[in-house]
Fold this sequence. Notes:
The chain is mainly alpha-helical. Helices cover 63% and strands 5% of the residues. The protein contains 38 helices and seven strands. Strands 2-3-4-1-5 form a five-stranded parallel beta sheet, with helices on both faces. The protein has a two-stranded antiparallel ribbon with strand order 6-7. α13 (291-298) packs across α16, α29 (588-605) packs antiparallel against α30 (608-624) and α30 runs antiparallel to α31 (628-645).
Amino acid sequence: MTGQNTGQPVRTSSFVGRRQETAEVKRLLAAHRLVSLTGTAGVGKTRLALHAVPRLARAFPDGVHLVQLAGVRDASLVPLALIEALTIRDVSGRSPERVLVDQLQEREMLLVLDNCEHFADACARLVGTLLAETVGVRVLATSRHPLDVPAQHVLEVQPLATPTPGEPLPPKPALEYPALALFADRAAAVLPGFSLTEANQDAVAALCRRLDGLPLAIELAAVRMRALGVQQLLERLDRRYRLLTDTADNGDTLLRHRTLRAAVDWSHDLCTPEEQTVWARASVFAGTFDLGAAEEVCAGPGLDRDAMVDAVAGLVDKSLLVREGDAVHARYRMLESIRQYGLDRLREDGAGAEEAARRLVRDWCLDFVEECERRWFGPDQPELVRRLHTESDLIRSVFEFCLTTPGELRAGLKLAGHLWFFWFATGALVEGRYWLERLLAAAPEPTVERARGLWVQALMLLSQGNAVRAAPLVEEARALALRLGAEAEVAHTYFGRGGARLISGDYDRARAVYEEALSRPPREGESMSLVGFKYVELAHVLAIQGEFDRAMALCEDFRQICLAHGEQWIHSYLLRILAFAEGAKGDRTAARIHARQCLRLKRAVGDVFGIGMTLELLAAVHARDGEGRPAAVLLGAAARIWQDAHVALDRTPSHGPVRTEAEEGARALLGDAFKSAYREGLVLTSDQAVAYALGERESAARPVFDSPLTRRETEVAELIAEGLTNQQIADRLVVALRTAEGHVERILSKLGFTSRSQVAVWAEARRAVRP
């Protein structure tokens, strides 16, 4: 888990106004663990939250993390959305809720949960659990209605201020009225040089009043300045809104809802037929999507594929699609109000229109994932990992569609089967097991898709070190594949069958399975990655059994294939086995070189568990060379990976001895200093640990000598050394005074001190020894 802001969309327009609200968000989060920004659709809750987030980052050592829930289509997926956003790689098999609680217990972070209203009950339950069972987690939620959580503090986001009818405007109205400033800013974006003047400001003020100060409605109107003058814009809106205000019921919320609906209606009427078609059909996308997906799903009757680019560009120009991504990877997202409107329009096309569009999304997703699997054994692995992470919301929506739509279970199992490499390589096993368990339980029919799903589920379990549950699944998969004559799936089961024996310590039987597998040529349709794993695992068994030269020869054989294809993931495993065999033979220089090459490749594809195993192997090499401190730091870093993942691979017979040797060697070299170096590694992230192992940086861990303080307490101690009072510390960290006082009390207690001056001396001494 990183301490960076995650999932934050690129802002394509400036933020106007809300200075007082931004300050209030900061103040409330300093005093309360749950703050909910509420208000009607289009009032700017999300924009306010995103504007406040960068100003809060310093207060949270473990980062500020954005979780966008608009793309979530089922209440049960809310915890998975958090796990994805926090890049948690827990493989314990526990429920996602328990995984989150355990992972976040020691963290000091802010979770920004956007668009909670879709699953308010699920969000409330999860937030309530997190607040009750963690200490340092705070939540900023956006929702049209408050969450049912007793601890929350609600800030209702109001529309932007507009002038009162008949009230003379001040000399600089944009400074007094944010609604006018927003309109002027957005109008200038489409009509360069536009500004508020004495000639147009009364019309702009009347327009913003007509739009009730709703930011989204103002933005939708402002883009019309490309074709209309302010007065023309006001006259057309006035005709549309007169009926609205004459018939609207009492109540600001209902009136604002109708105001926004009328503004969106007007924008829809002004769209071309092609733009209207894309708007309706693209509303079935969960989260963001790219142009290729839009072409597959939206093109068809009434819309030629060649017209898609212009239609998408037109919707972006009209602020109906939000462009995200970067200059290379353009993606698009609909604001939730706009998406719901599009769904309403789509449903007007008939009872089956929405389901038909979702089937097109399913088809696109299946094609996309199958193409990723075909390209996986090649040079594009880091890019494919990035793409698959980016499409996670859409993939989840397709799984949910397959689980809830009659006749779609087989397609869901097929999708899961093609994702094995992604879940396995990146350690996203919580996600993989969640979908596989549901699909396999719902689809017991004897199909090729089920056979693959069974062995993929076995791989997930083997990655957890659970051979007991994995072994029967992979045997069931093999029997079903043989029965169906699915030779490729039979071949795929060899990896799991041998793996179950390997991690159990039954090396002779594991060796027999892999030798049998390699005695046969690859079947048509067999994954080259799984062919490669047969070489990897047989070489691993041979190295464990002392046949180092044969193990190294096998690695070199398949390495040539990897090099010819530009493949990195399997190559990294071969390098690790080479390093293991070379180290055992006494060639520690070669072992160190190959272990570091392995780490570089594993970092490129995000193979967290592979990183953990390789850090331990490199630690053993350092220990053999008499380098106790780096060995201990790397052991601590690997332990952090296993602790975060709740995985026991480091304690299996096939992997445990490497760690044991490294730890015994480092302890013998360091004595009492082992604990300090080990703790230094424990606070490294995976990326920091790899950088340290490669010599790219010194350890970024704090503290660098034995310390009982948490990261936040260490930061407070350093502020004490700067001479700050408790109130100044609270202000600096954006926390309540009582929170700062509590930190100071715990610091004094843990260090056994009685005065702030002693803490200052301690902090200065700590700085002096920092590398």
